[in-house]
């Protein structure tokens, strides 16, 4: 198949849950347009005409419609009954097959833990260069990355194979495009025995509250050791709910049992890049900053005016968070009339 691709086609690996594309996919599509024409890869469990693994034809239609709204003219539907049964290897094989068949100008995926693993394996399989944690992409293929926990910014260009870029969530602002009716190209993916090396036996879905996903939220209210007690994180939750945001925490807070580990922000936690990051009782260690310093606006609440976090603050409040947060929540509620 696929003599229909163009030389500047850029493959984008879509992320989707329950028939809804992630916000990150729209960001990747915008990034792909910098290099060429995006062709979005949808991985679908099941063979043609067969609905399995939750990927019904209705789901596929819904996803294609969302991609059309984002102005995507080409969708590559990669089907295998075995997606979802194994870890990342089937995804890697699907992308490697598409790289061989479609000879794209580049491949873009999200710099999540899974995305980076897929990108690394794909680079080895296709003999290509890879850049991860990309925060900016330019038309000549140069990518900007933050390295050494964000303490240095480098610009690099891939000179080998099909360039693979793992793009940081929230680093690129998705742009609106003229809606189109996408052309759908279906590919049956053939898995090798090595792709079946480790099979998923069971999986448990973590209970999710009403707050947005931490890595996708446009507002993050984060707390550190300065919050003091686990129950005082309720203040941060109230502020986050008032602003439609998510709650994050420093490693000292998660290690100290103040908040669950899955919400840790930083070098060994999650990377966030929201429009607004409110750091409460966080000192601003380099490992914490590595996960949040690309936030567009940083507000700091800290009782110690010499804390290094103030160096990256757009707006700082020197004060006890136990006094500042209740006043802020009350003021926001009054403003919202609730
Ligand atoms: C390999 C490695 C990886 C790491 N990865 C991460 C990571 O991913 N994420 C991460 O966060 N850390 C990480 N760390 C830990 C990091 O070095 C810091 O120890 C940690 O970020 C400190 O957390 P904190 O700012 O909450 O605590 P502290 O440094 O103890 O700071 C607490 C702050 O709260 C303020 N405060 C105290 N009371 C109040 C109050 N009542 N009101 C307002 N402010 C108050 C204090 O002035 C202080 O600035 C890592 C460390 C290593 C070595």
Based on the model shown, name its key terms.
five-stranded parallel beta sheet, Rossmann fold, binds flavin-adenine dinucleotide, 8 helices, about 25% helix, nine-stranded mixed beta sheet, disordered N terminus, about 350 residues
Descriptive report:
A nine-stranded mixed β-sheet has the order 9-8-7-10-6-1-4-5-11, with helices on both faces. The chain has about 350 residues and is α/β, with parallel strands linked by helices. It folds into two domains: about 10-195, HUPs (Rossmann fold, 3-Layer(aba) Sandwich); about 220-335, Rossmann fold (3-Layer(aba) Sandwich), CATH 3.40.50. Helix 3 (about 90-100) crosses helix 4. It contains eight helices and 16 strands. A hairpin with a 2-residue loop joins strand 2 (about 15) and strand 3. The longest helix has 16 residues, at about 320-335. It has helices at about 25-35, 55-70, 90-100, 115-125, 235-245, 250-255, 285-290, 320-335, and strands at about 10-15, 15, 20, 35-45, 75-80, 105-110, 130-135, 145, 150-155, 165, 185-190, 220-225, 245-250, 275-280, 295-300, 315-320. The chain binds flavin-adenine dinucleotide. The site of flavin-adenine dinucleotide (FAD) has 28 residues, from helix 6, helix 7, strand 15 and helix 8. Flavin-adenine dinucleotide binds near residues 226, 285, 287 and 303.
Radius of gyration: 21 Å
* Strand ordering within the main sheet: 9-8-7-10-6-1-4-5-11
Order of helices and strands: EEEHEHEHEHEEEEEEHEHEHEEH
Largest sheet: 9 strands, mixed
Ligand list = flavin-adenine dinucleotide
Estimate the helix proportion, in percent.
25-40%
CATH fold descriptor of the largest domain: Rossmann fold
Mean pLDDT: 91
């Amino acid at each position: 198949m696929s003599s229909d691709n163009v030389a500047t086609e850029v493959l984008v690996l879509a992320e989707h849950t329950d028939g809804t594309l992630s916000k990150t996919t729209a960001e990747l599509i915008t990034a792909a347009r910098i290099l060429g024409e995006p062709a979005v890869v949808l991985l679908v469990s099941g063979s043609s005409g067969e609905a399995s693994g939750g990927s019904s034809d209705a789901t596929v239609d819904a996803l294609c419609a969302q991609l059309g709204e984002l102005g995507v003219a080409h969708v590559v539907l990669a089907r295998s009954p075995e997606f979802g049964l194994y870890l990342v290897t089937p995804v890697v094989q699907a992308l490697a097959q598409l790289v061989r068949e479609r000879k794209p100008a580049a491949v873009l995926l999200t710099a999540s833990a899974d995305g980076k693993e897929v990108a690394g394996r794909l680079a080895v399989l296709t003999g290509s260069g890879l850049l991860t944690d990309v925060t900016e992409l330019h038309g000549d293929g140069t990518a900007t990355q933050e390295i050494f926990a964000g303490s240095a910014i480098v610009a690099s260009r891939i000179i080998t194979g099909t360039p693979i870029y793992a793009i940081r969530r929230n680093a690129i602002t998705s742009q609106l495009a003229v809606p189109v009716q996408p052309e759908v190209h279906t590919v049956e993916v053939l898995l090798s025995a090595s792709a079946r090396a480790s099979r998923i036996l069971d999986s448990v879905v973590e209970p999710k509250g009403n707050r947005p996903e931490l890595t996708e939220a446009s507002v993050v209210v984060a707390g550190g050791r300065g919050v003091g007690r686990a129950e005082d994180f309720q203040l941060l939750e109230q502020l986050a709910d008032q602003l439609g945001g998510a709650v994050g925490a420093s490693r000292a807070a998660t290690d100290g049992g103040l908040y669950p580990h899955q919400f840790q922000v930083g070098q060994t936690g999650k990377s966030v890049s929201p429009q607004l990051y409110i750091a409460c009782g966080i000192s601003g260690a380099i490992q914490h900053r590595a996960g949040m310093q690309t936030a567009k606006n940083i507000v700091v609440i800290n009782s110690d005016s010499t804390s290094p976090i103030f160096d990256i603050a757009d707006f700082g409040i020197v004060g006890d968070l136990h006094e500042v947060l209740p006043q802020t929540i009350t003021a926001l509620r009054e403003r919202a009339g609730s």
